[in-house]
Amino acid sequence: MTTAPGAPAVPRILLAEASLPYRRVIREALMAFRICEVDDAPSGERAFELALQREYSLFLFSLPLPDMTGDMLDRLLSKAYPMVHPGVHAAPPVIFLIQPGDALRFQELQRDVRVRGSMPLPPKLDVLLSVTATLLPERQGLAFPPFSPPHVS
Is 97 in contact with 123 (CB distance < 8 Å)? Predict the structure, then answer.
């Protein structure tokens, strides 16, 4: 997407999650309710490659990934990201997607100032919108038509 000169860039999110259905649900929900673009990757390696190619406003990483853990991916990117993007001094904030068994591990990760929260898997729309509320602008004009039950005669 090309941005007109002087216009603010649309925030771009990098999502790393092994499950295609989860990636699809999260991507579609974010693009429907937040002003953003989402790139997704099925592995830590692919997410790392994407992060070095483009600038992002937010990382969403699953803690369990097929080839490395999400926190390892985040640690690697926290070092490499500022080196490949001129004018960027730190990697973007990160939200971790966690399984029920990862809660204890996530508590340790919360000490990092860039960690902005977590979302349990399977994804829940209310949690996703809540955890991204301060990080991404809300899409306006989402008024759904009022529900009217079918007329029965």
Answer: yes
Among 32, 44, 50, 153, smallest CA distance to 97 is for 44
CB 17 within 8 A of CB 25: no
CA terminus-to-terminus distance, the chain: 50
φ and ψ at residue 13, rounded to 5 degrees: -115, 140
Q: At what angle do helices 70-84 and 44-53 cross, to 10 degrees?
A: 20
pLDDT of residue 103: 86
Nearest Cα neighbor of 60 from 127, 5, 2, 8 is: 127
Q: What is the pTM of this model?
A: 0.86
Q: Answer whether CATH 3.30.565.10 is correct for domain 12-132.
A: no
Percent of the chain surpassing pLDDT 90: 80
At how many degrees (to 10) do helices 125-132 and 20-33 cross? 60
Tokens of 127: 């949690």
What is the longest distance spanned by two Cα atoms in the chain? Answer: 69
